[in-house]
Specification:
The protein is mostly helical and 156 residues long. Helices cover 57% and strands 9% of the residues. It has five helices and three strands, in the order ααββααβα.
């Protein structure tokens, strides 16, 4: 349980990092409708891919760090790390979107034809799968690479 909850807390770091790095989308307000400026709609894809890449990186780090818990190696710890990564990715998505929204909050009602930054968003919830999949890949690769029957749990 401690591995699951500790790994889930990595979601706060991932969400904070994404909220800072994700580019906003510049929009113009025309008759009450927000329209993206030319080439700004690509930032929706940038936000999504940036979250996936940060999640993949964190998943690889988590898989490697959990593997270093030598006395606890095995399928239970791998499952806990993967579930913790899934929970952490969900937390990162929720917290990251909220923090990004606060970075680009409008202080008042914009005038007609005003150009302003719209906060980054994640338009798909499938992005939460990147971190747990990378965690399982890293831990599984290290397990397959280890040639010992006991996965090297015994230090002697």
């Amino acid at each position: 349980m401690s591995v699951l909850s500790t790994v889930a807390l990595t979601g706060l770091l991932v969400g904070w990092l994404w909220s800072i790095l994700a580019p906003p989308q510049r929009v113009i307000l025309v008759d009450g409708q927000q329209l993206p400026l030319l080439d700004e709609s690509y930032h929706r894809f940038d936000d999504l891919i940036l979250f996936v890449l940060i999640g993949l990186g964190m998943g690889l780090v988590v898989g490697g760090v959990v593997w270093m818990l030598r006395e606890r190696r095995g399928p239970v710890i791998m499952i806990a790390a993967v579930l913790g990564s899934a929970l952490g990715a969900w937390l990162a998505m929720k917290v990251g979107v909220s923090w990004a929204g606060s970075h680009y909050a409008l202080t008042g009602t914009p005038a007609n034809r005003a150009v302003f930054d719209q906060a980054p968003v994640l338009e798909s919830t499938w992005v939460v799968l990147a971190q747990p999949l990378a965690t399982a890949l890293a831990y599984g690769t290290l397990t397959a690479w280890n040639g010992m029957d006991d996965l090297g749990r015994r230090l002697g």
